[in-house]
Amino acid sequence: MAVIKLHVKKDDLVMVVAGKDKGKSGKVLRVLPEKSRVLVENLNVVKRHTRPSQANNEGGIIEKEAPIAISNVQVLCPGCSKPTRTGIKVLDDGSKVRFCKKCNEIVNN
User: For the ranges 15-19, 30-34, 100-104, 105-109, which has the lowest average pLDDT?
Assistant: First the structure.
């Protein structure tokens, strides 16, 4: 299976545009390109029932973030502070940067 290039990177601020957490935003903790999913801080929180183990003596119910489909999140633009699609520009010095398609502001890399 070919891994596709994704529009979201680790540490990006993103907003969820579909699903149970629609309208909420958070920071990307991890990108899973092979599954086209992202892990967003404090979003899509699920409960996991765990057994006691060496790492976790007590066990019990643990709340943790579950991956969200990458198609359901959009990058928050630092300029217009709205969820936006991003494009790629090549600057004069030859470096590639992402930019907001709404206001042409450069999104941090």
Answer: 105-109
1: closest CA among 36, 25, 45?
Answer: 36
pLDDT tens digit sequence for 30-82: 999 999 999 999 999 999 999 999 988 888 999 999 999 999 999 999 888 89
d(CA 35, CA 45) in angstroms, rounded, equals 18
Asked whether the beta carbons of 25 and 78 are under 8 A apart, the reply is no
Token pair 């579950």 is found at: 66
Q: Which residues contact 56 (CB under 8 A, 6 or more apart)?
A: 50, 62
* Cα separation of the two ends of the chain: 27
Side chain identity at residue 75, one-letter code: V
